[in-house]
Write a structure and sequence with these properties.
two-stranded antiparallel sheet; three-stranded antiparallel sheet; mainly alpha; globular
Length: 169
């Protein structure tokens, strides 16, 4: 039987040691936290895209790169930029995220150094994402606030690393 410390250790491993070529993993972690906060076990892909839109809209208030490749930007960045410039409505931006942003992050979230972690925090299909009890265990624990701070710290570190890369450092 899964214990809260085992669930927390697995989630932290994903955040701290998972491969990060973009910040999508951090956004998905925050989306999972928001789902738990709202006591939602399932969101369709559109709702998940809406969560990503909200999370990135806030995050991109400060213009920092979200991708390791200095010549590109993520699909979510592109959708947010379109929304901010007025070339996309909010609904169009969310549609773009829904259709273009989840191809890699959903199947790879549970992977650390090429190995699947023993705890799964969600299952997904082409229509949506279903949280497991482990996700609720993590984000209803007394460690929740500390974990959220760790996610934000890791996200900031990734942005800084990507920015330095773009500057040639």
């Amino acid at each position: 039987m899964l214990t809260p410390p085992e669930a927390m250790d697995s989630f932290r491993a994903i955040i701290e040691r998972g491969k990060n070529t973009s910040t999508y993993k951090m956004a998905l972690a925050l989306a999972i936290a928001r789902m738990v906060e709202g006591n939602k076990r399932y969101v369709n892909k559109r709702e998940l895209a809406g969560l990503f839109f909200e999370i990135y809209l806030d995050r991109l208030e400060v213009d920092m790169p979200q991708l390791s490749d200095p010549t590109k930007s993520t699909r979510v960045e592109q959708a947010i930029a379109g929304f901010k410039s007025g070339t996309l409505t909010k609904e169009q931006a969310i549609s773009r995220i829904e259709n273009e942003a989840f191809r890699d992050v959903l199947p790879r979230f549970h992977t650390v150094n090429g190995v699947q972690v023993p705890v799964k925090f969600y299952s997904y299909t082409s229509s949506g994402l279903s949280l497991t009890d482990a996700a609720f265990m993590v984000f209803q624990s007394p460690e929740r606030d500390k974990l959220l701070q760790e996610i934000h710290r890791k996200w900031s570190l990734l942005e800084e690393t990507f920015a330095r890369s773009r500057l040639g450092e």
